[in-house]
């Protein structure tokens, strides 16, 4: 497994693309814009999925599954949602192929097999889910309805990049129905907080919680909450969103309930989701010029043991110690691999696990056996130490916690160093061009100013932070009065 990665300082985009492929996370497929997630990459996604699924169930949600196809008439029912996703839709028009009469080796669409109604391949599932909820909800006793699904969705992106933007991707989408506006808003806030807790504490990525501006909201939502992260190249990445949908979808699909007082009313809705884009966030937040750096919580292999030996006899002696360590570490819930392949030299194995971001590496040779020690190497700092064999398990337990915390601290320091307050548009452009990161600036609250800044600089308002303090000021672009600073950045 060759490293030879482009340096981040030379070409960050190229470094990212090379790392995804060389670390065996994913690759482009035969379908334009779609990816194959390879076993090592999928193992990381499974860890994310398991932890999120646990959090969803702890907050009362259940998993279900809904169809991939959405009849066009249902998709059109909520106008803003349909309009927002229309340009990214893949559409099924026929249901059969037949042999080409002019060339028997080829298949063509059978013109007699045209669908009566075209089907949209889901870009998001609100339409099919809310048409289903109409049959599930009649009374206040049916509420709240708290459903999540793990699924794939298709958005026909023109410019794609592995994990960050692909025509098909994996995600979870929560869709909930409530009796009151207040309940639905509380759900929207709760799930945004669940995402923030997961990304901060499980992925070791610091995030800023806030709400989107009107033009950046989810299509069909009354309000969108989000978590925003900052990558090492100074660009922002939207790591998760949670939407308060009001009664828009309930009205579009006529989903009503009878209240305790016997009154008929529309339910209140939310939807929320994160996707395999989080894999991109993970890579770009922690990794370095040597390859992946994985937080222990997400590493498919937390510890790898590499024997250094000459001949079968030495390998057998080392294997006794290594297998004891494997048993002891696994009993503590630590994932460990003993790599005793004889087809690769130790140096090649070291390079592979460094590239793949395994947090800790143990090397054991004949001299270590004599001394009763092992060599323990950290991936995050690339430092080594010799540890007595009897102390290895305890040392590893404490180091894994230390690495998790250290990665979060390092990313937080970088993020905090790259939040810059500006008061003039010249300062704004200078920081954006030369420093990057989040720019904290006053905004007059108008879509026109937001669009003009985007046109001139390619920077967008990432969020209006929940903890933003009110202060009198002037809009960085229009000089009109403003009472709050928002966060701008270039973004993925």
Features:
492 residues; alpha+beta; 12-stranded mixed β-sheet; 5-stranded mixed β-sheet; 26 strands; 29% strand
- Strand % is 25-35%
Shape: globular
Separate helix tally: 14
Separation of the first and last Cα atoms = 29 Å
Poorly predicted spans: none
Average pLDDT reading? 97
C-alpha Rg, in Å?
26 Å
Number of strands: 26
Folded structure, characterized:
The chain is an alpha+beta fold. The protein is built from 14 helices and 26 strands. The strands form six sheets. Strands 3, 9, 10, 11, 12, 13, 16, 22, 23, 24, 25 and 26 form a twelve-stranded mixed beta sheet that branches. A five-stranded mixed beta sheet has the order 18-17-19-20-21, sandwiched between helices. α2 packs across α6. The longest helix has 26 residues. It is globular. It starts with 11 loop residues before the first helix and ends with a strand. The relative contact order is 0.11. The model has no long low-confidence stretch (mean pLDDT 97).
């Amino acid at each position: 497994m060759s490293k030879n990665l482009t340096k981040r300082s030379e070409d960050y985009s190229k470094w990212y693309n090379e790392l995804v492929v060389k670390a065996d996370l994913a690759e482009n497929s035969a379908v334009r814009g779609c990816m194959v997630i390879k076993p090592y990459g999928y193992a990381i996604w499974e860890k994310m999925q398991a932890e999120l699924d646990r959090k969803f169930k702890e907050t009362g949600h259940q998993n279900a599954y809904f169809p991939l196809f959405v009849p066009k008439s249902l998709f059109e029912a909520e106008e803003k949602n349909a309009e927002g996703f229309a340009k990214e839709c893949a559409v099924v028009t026929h249901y059969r192929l037949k042999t080409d009469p002019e060339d028997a080796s080829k298949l063509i669409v059978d013109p007699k097999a045209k669908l009566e109604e075209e089907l949209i391949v889901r870009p998001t599932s609100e339409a099919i889910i809310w048409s289903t909820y109409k049959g599930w909800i009649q009374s206040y006793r049916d509420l709240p309805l708290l459903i999540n699904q793990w699924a794939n969705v298709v958005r026909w992106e023109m410019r794609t990049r592995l994990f960050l933007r692909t025509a098909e991707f994996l995600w979870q989408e929560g869709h909930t129905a409530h009796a009151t506006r207040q309940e639905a808003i509380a759900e929207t806030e709760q799930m945004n907080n669940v995402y923030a807790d997961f990304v901060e504490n499980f992925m070791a990525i610091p995030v800023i919680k806030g709400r989107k501006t009107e033009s950046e909201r989810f299509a069909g939502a009354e309000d969108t909450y989000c978590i925003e992260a900052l990558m090492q190249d100074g660009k922002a990445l939207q790591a998760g969103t949670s939407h308060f949908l009001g009664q828009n979808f309930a009205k579009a699909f006529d989903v009503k309930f009878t209240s305790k007082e016997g009154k008929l009313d529309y339910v209140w809705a939310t939807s929320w989701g994160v996707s395999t884009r989080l894999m991109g966030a993970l890579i770009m937040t922690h990794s370095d010029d040597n390859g992946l750096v994985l937080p222990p919580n997400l590493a498919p292999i937390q510890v790898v043991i590499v024997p250094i030996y000459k001949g079968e006899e030495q390998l057998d002696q080392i294997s006794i110690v290594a297998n004891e360590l494997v048993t002891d570490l696994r009993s503590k819930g630590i994932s460990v691999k003993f790599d005793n392949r004889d087809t690769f030299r130790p140096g090649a194995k070291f390079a592979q696990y460094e590239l793949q971001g395994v947090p800790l590496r143990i090397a054991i040779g004949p001299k270590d056996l004599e001394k009763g020690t092992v060599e323990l190497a950290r991936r995050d700092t690339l430092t080594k130490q010799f540890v007595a064999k009897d102390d290895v398990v305890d040392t590893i337990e404490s180091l894994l916690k230390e690495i998790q915390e250290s990665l979060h601290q390092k990313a937080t320091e970088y993020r905090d160093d790259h939040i810059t307050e500006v008061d003039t548009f010249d300062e704004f452009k200078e920081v954006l061009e030369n420093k990057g990161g989040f720019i904290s600036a006053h905004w007059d609250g108008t879509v026109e100013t937001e669009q003009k800044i985007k046109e001139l600089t390619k920077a967008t308002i990432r969020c209006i932070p929940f903890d933003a303090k009110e202060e009198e000021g002037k809009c960085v672009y229009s000089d009109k009065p403003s009472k709050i600073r928002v966060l701008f950045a270039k973004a993925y």
